[in-house]
Every structure is written in C-alpha cells, then in structure tokens.
Amino acid sequence: MNVVVVESPAKAKTINKYLGSDYIVLASYGHVRDLPPKDGSVRPDDDFAMSWDVDAKSAKRLNDIADAMKGADRLILATDPDREGEAISWHVLEVLQKKKVIKTATVQRVVFNAITKSAVTEAMKAPRDIDMELVEAYLARRALDYLVGFTLSPVLWRKLPGSRSAGRVQSVALRLIVDRELEIERFKTQEYWTVDADVSAGGDPFLARLVKHQAKRLTKFDLGDEAAAEAAKAAVQAASFTVASVEKKPAKRSPAPPFTTSTLQQEASRKLGFSAQRTMQAAQKLYEGVDIGGETVGLITYMRTDGVQAAPEALDEARQVIAGVYGKDYVPEQARIYRTKAKNAQEAHEAIRPTSLARNPGSLRLEGDLGRLYELIWKRMIASQMESARIERTTIELESADGQTGLRATGQVILFDGYLAVYEEGRDDADDEESGRLPQVSQGAAAKVATARAAQHFTEPPPRYSEASLVKKMEELGIGRPSTYASVLTVLRDRDYVKMDKNRFVPEDKGRLVTAFLEQFFRRYVEYDFTAALEEKLDLVSAGDLNWKVLLREFWQDFHAAVGEISELRVTNVLDALNEALGPHIFPAKADGSDPRACPTCATGQLSLKTGKFGAFIGCSNYPECRFTRPIAQSEGDEADAANADRELGTDPETGLIVHLKNGRFGPYVQLGEGDKPKRSSLPKTWSPAAMDLEKGLRLLRLPREVGEHPEDGQMILAGLGRYGPFVQHNGAYANLESIDEVFEVGLNRAVALIAEKKAGGKGRRGEAAALKDLGVHPADGAPVRILSGRFGPYIKHGATNANIPRGGDPQEVTLEQAVALLAEREAKGGTKKKPVKKAAAKPKAEKAEKAPAAKTAAKKPAAKKPAAKKPAAKKTPAKKTAAS
Fold first, then answer.
1. Identified catalytic residue from 138, 146, 287, 302
2. Class assignment of domain 2-130?
3. What is the CB neighbour count within 10 angstroms for residue 829?
C-alpha cells in the first residue's frame, strides 16, 4: 500500500482517482506545524534552534496519516512544487518519524506542475528525496520573519502605543506607499501650454502640433503662460506651410510572455479589478481542479511561480489551436521561448498556463471569478505564441516659409493585428501614443491651417500605488516573493496602516508613524536595497551556496544590537524625532505665514505629537491647563473647526448644567456638565463645529430618541447615532437611516418598515440571515418555509429546523416540495433538538432574574468575562504578521 500526502482535500480526491486502489491519498490541509506565537520559538542563543507547534486540527490530520502508514510500503510526499511545499513535506516527515510509524517504508518526494492524469502519473515515475536546501531556505526565511516581528513589534508597542506590528517585508511595502504619498505632497504643479492646428495638404485634414516657434525647438515648458501660447497660436495662423518631410516606419509589437504569479496579480487587478488575494484564491481552485463532465480536472498549472517558460508539448498545442482558430498567418515560424527577467527569480517552474489549451473558455462555461480568471490565463498563453502585430508609424513635418514655425503630425496604423486579435497587456498609465491613419500627403506640397488652438495643461504628481503597480514595484526591487504579496498587502489593510481610495493605497496616519519610526531608528531594515540583498542571500541558501545559520548569525548580530540601543531611548526622545520627521505632514505651513505649531485654543502653547492608550495624537504643551487635542493630519479648515470646537453653547434648561462644545482626539463633541463621566455625543461628520448652537447640542445629548412602540410586541423603537452612522433599533435589530436629520424626524411607520426590511433582506447587528427566497407555507403546520443566506452558504429554514441545500444546488431553483423533503430528512437526523433545549434553558434564567436581581447579575458575569478570553488571541498578531511577511 502507498500513502500519498498532498496539501488540499480537493487535490487529494482528484489524485486518488488517477492513482487507483493501491494508493491512499490524504491531505495535510497546508502547513501542519508553525512557530508558537510567543517568545523563545526561535532561540538565537541556542544556534537558532526552532520550536514547532502542532495545532489540534493538524494533529488530527497527522494522526490520520500516521494510521494510514501502519502496514504501508511507501510514503509519497506530493505537496506543492515550491519552497513552501517542500517545507510541508519536511514537516510531515518529521512528525511521522517522531511517531515512529515510518519503520521500513520507503519515503519519496514527487512534484507535478499540473493536476492532470498524465502529469501525476509521470511524476510518480520520477521520485526524489526532500530537497533540504529548499527546506533550509524556508527555515531561514521563517526565522528571519519571526525574529523581526517578535523583536521589533514589542519595541513599537512600548515606544509608539497604538501601533500593531512590524514585519521584514510588510514594513518595506508600507514604506513604498508612504514614500509615494510624500512624493505627491511635495509635488509642485507647473503650468504649460500646447498649440494644435487642423491642417490640410491637398487631402483630408489632420491634426498637427506646434514643435518649433521663433526658429527654436519647443520643450515642454517653453510656452509657460497664456500670453506666450496665444502669441505662438497667432504665428501658426499667420504662417504659410509646406510639407517638409513624410516618414513612414514599419514596426512590430511582440506579445508578453505567459503569466507568472506577479504578472497574473497585476493583470487581474487592471483588467478584472481583483485584489491579489482574490486572484490567488481563484487561481488555487483552478489549479486544484474543477468538475467537468463528472470528472475533476486541474485547469491551470501551478500558480506560484516566477518562470515564464512553457513545456514543449504546451507550445505545440498552442500553435495548433492558433492555426485552427485564427489561421496559419497568426502562427510564427518558430515557437516563442521566453526567459525570466525578474530580479531574484525563484526555482524554475513553468509559467501559469492552461493544462490544455483545447479547453477554451467558451466551452468550459465557468462562472464568476473562475471563469473570468481562466479566460485571462488562456488568452495570455495563446497570445504569447502568436505572430507579432505589424504597425506602420507615420510622421509628417510641416515647415513655415520663413523657417520660424514648425508643426508635426504623428500617427500609426495596425497593418496586421497578430496577437492583438486575442490579447493586449494592460497598462497602469495612459498611452500617449497617437493612433490612427494619416492621409496621404506629398513632400513639398503646400499645407493650409484651418484653425489653431492653444490648450492649457498642468503637470500631475505620480499616481498612488494600485495593487498592480505596487506588486510590480516590489518585484522590480526584489522585495519579498510574489507568492507572499497577497498576504503582505492584506496585513497592511488589516492593521489599518493603509486604506484604499479608488483602488489606490493611501497611508493612514498610523502607517506614517510606523514608517517614520522605523526610518529614524531602524533605517537599515526598511531600506529597499538591504531587503533585496537579504532575498538574494536566501536564494543562495536554496541553491546550496550559503549556510542558512551563517545568514541568520550575520543578520541577528547587527539587528539585536540596534534593538538594544532603541530600547534605552525614552518615549519623549522618540516623539521629538517623529515631530521633526513628520513636521511638514502634521504641521503644514499656513497660508498666512503664522506659526503652524501654535495652539489654536490658548495661543501660547505649542502643538506636538503625543501618545496615549489608543495611539498618537496632537496635543498642546500647556496641558492640563489647555486640553486642546486633534487627530494627527489636519488641514487649516479642520484646525479652524477645532478652534471653534472649544466653547460654551449655553445652559440646559432641564438640568441647569452647562453644555460645552469640545474637540477631542477623535473629533468635536458636545458635553453636558463636568465630572467623572459627563454625558457626551460626537458631532456627525456633516455638522460643522462653527455652526453648532445650544439647540443642536441638546438634540444630540438627548439621543437615543424614542420613536414609538412597535405594533407587534409593544417594545420601544429607538433612533440614535452610532459608530456606523444614524440608525433605528428595535429588540436588537438595527436599520440604517439615510442622514442624521432622519434621527430627529423619523416616524413610527417609517421606522417599522425599515426594521422589517432589514430583517427580511440582510443581516443586522443581531438580525437574522438574509432571505433569498420565500417558498410558501409548510403543509404540516402552515409555518413559512424560506431559503436564507448563511455563513456557510444558503439553507432552508422552517421554524427551528434548518436544512442545508445540496452542494452545487441553485437556491433559486429549489421548490417547496424539495424543501419539505430536505427538512423531513434533517428532522429525522435530529435537526430540531438543539434550539428547543436553548429555549427551555432560557426560561428559568428569566424567572430567576425577575425574582432576584442579584441572581441576574451573577448570571451575566460569565458573559462579561468573555472579552478577557480573547486576550491570548491578541498576542498572536505578530505571528500572523511574520508569516505574512
């Protein structure tokens, strides 16, 4: 008997069909061990010894593999064909050896680049040993990420409260985003003008641009204002032109190579709007297999690769498909062979391509993300083996009779579309190249200007990074690995270091602070060249040219010393350095030339960066006499609002307490009276502090407002302003209101309707699942039967019974009869037991609560302690971060 270990259950199921009854194929479900998220998991003082931990789920899967090994003749480790896959095989083998279940069984490692019957059976014929050099490269990378994360993150927490984590690759990617934002902020817009003319030379008119004025070739900024542009325009209109030259140049455009991990993420972002993570999730499913005609087939080759080459049989098949679909003219004389140009390219795997190009996207009829991504991969592979596009570029030069003025017209026309018939690579920036055919003109012919126009332009700053352009930049610099980019970018968003605006990365203040801190005190470790050089050393480890522990010793010696130096610094020293580094951002120059650091409230204090329990903010040096605070980044208009947000609005006639308008760390708010816990309410975003008065302040302080009793149960409906905006609330169900004004105006009928819509159409804070379809009433009791959208997919609900819809079934096609049958089947299995038990248990608690308030309090205590149980999870953050780096 042969035991085969792969990574995913989908892959296991498919490969088991290929190999037959002599094989047991089991899944490890990815990594089976990891470094525990605590100090000491990597021990530099013990020659970088590493402690590995197996979680409960992985332990069960490893036990299943160990049980299968009893009596087995061979263990075949068939995890993915990359460093991570090699590491998983090593981890599985290590655990099985400790369990002493290998005994006399032969251990072999096989790899295949596609999950097809031929690829798998061929791989089984060429087994090898585990590549320990790849494993050691993995161990070095994992140790580096752990050491950086677990050493640097605590320093951040102590010196910069509110910061979440730092990572070896994560922090460098963040610096790229922050540096680009600084570049945009420093950018000075410059005005320039151009002059165009509609010209004819014995035929159809065409567009030409002024390139020579007053006998001088124009540069971009020579026409710097309207006066200069109008003078040039007048010169064009007054001149007589002849055609000085007509030049036609043939050119070729060649196709891009098939996809690598990085280029797939970039193109999916540009053409499909996919995030890197979404792209990789869809690619994983295409690789592991899709059901086609009752058989699960892997549709693409392995999706984590830097290679751009394709197997000879794939090239032959591509040429056959091209000839059959597009014709022989589209097939080049020889197959195109590509070589990778990426810096620090990994071990040479094939490019990402369809396992069979005969499976065109139309024939497969894949839906959703899988269909769109497969079509992109298929077209890119086909185009990469097609003939080049042939283009004719034409340039017409026009010269005035006195030689003082010159115009130029450019155009291009595609003579043969070649690969462009299938696919054209996307671009991050607009293509400024002129397109279109110019009319036939003869050299020496007279040309006449019909109209001339002067146009104003302004230079623009470089664009913020999109996912595509950031991935491209990281790959160019050799930072990280394409296979990790998706997780790195996800971590930056999850840590609130960046936000997305129109699909572009914008650094949050928290991200700027972390970057400024690292640049000031750990600059070497966020340098692009240093990070890329470290990747090159890791490649040397995987090639067997560098000992992995030598690499770790060299890194740790300097890094540990740098951390030790910073640990001695006081928080005030850190804040002083950050005040200086972030000065232009947090204290931008004012238009009137006044001191940007002057406190707008007391006028005598100086503003500076401060830290608190919830992170950094700007505060006054005269604290506690002056309690002015504001968020870090703020415009002059915001600061004027902040100055207005520190005054008395008047006295509340009901309580006799003074209503204050104040400005806090999270923005302006109103406060009733003073004391330890005065009543407060934040101002809605649409309300300006300058326009606040006593009436508005009291309206906010008296929220939530009672709208009226719900007609069904008599419970009060409330309207208020919460974290997610204005709302109405009834019995734990929340529904959003369109504006803050509705909070004060919404009536009972409108509130009841909104809450009903929320319950029926979507999941509220504690509302029920979204309803997908009402099937009618159950024939047994007349209760409604509905299809709801749940966390794990659509399901049927009738009373307290829930029944799953069979996998792959369309919820919109389920009939009442089918639903009743599924519900009956579920009830027969005991599907209604749990909920009645919960209801029965709830009654005694309620009765006790009514009789004895103390009992009610005691009953609630365990629930109050639940947040404390989550504390260990918070400590795991660095581990997640280091893994993602």
1. 302
2. alpha beta
3. 9
